[in-house]
Amino acid sequence: xxxxxxxxxxxxxxxxxxxxxxxxxxxxxxxxxxxxxxxxxxxxxxxxxxxxxxxxxxxxxxxxxxxxxxxxxxxxxxxxxxxxxxxxxxxxxxxxxxxxxxxxxxxxxxxxxxxxxxxxxxxx
Length: 124
Description:
Layout: E1 2-5, E2 20-23, E3 26-33, H1 46-63, E4 71-78, H2 84-94, E5 101-106, E6 116-123
């Protein structure tokens, strides 16, 4: 059975979708921007956006009873590949004990003019 989950400590979705869907022991998480959940505004720098997006991802994981170590796959979307090294430093602060597989894709634009977005799959 599929169960849609929305975390209170993550920003509200910017469209008609759930933060995540739990099916069996697998959690599929929607893309997270660097939106501050209290102000619903984007952080300014790409590294601040990456940090906030990863915190938002953590809130969604916690809501499902999971942690970063349960994440098996991430996909990162950035608007400028020149930011790759800087976001890697931020990313590496959240994924330390277990490194999930990952893709990084440069895109022309992200919702709300964001510069960083991450989606993930976790398995408990």
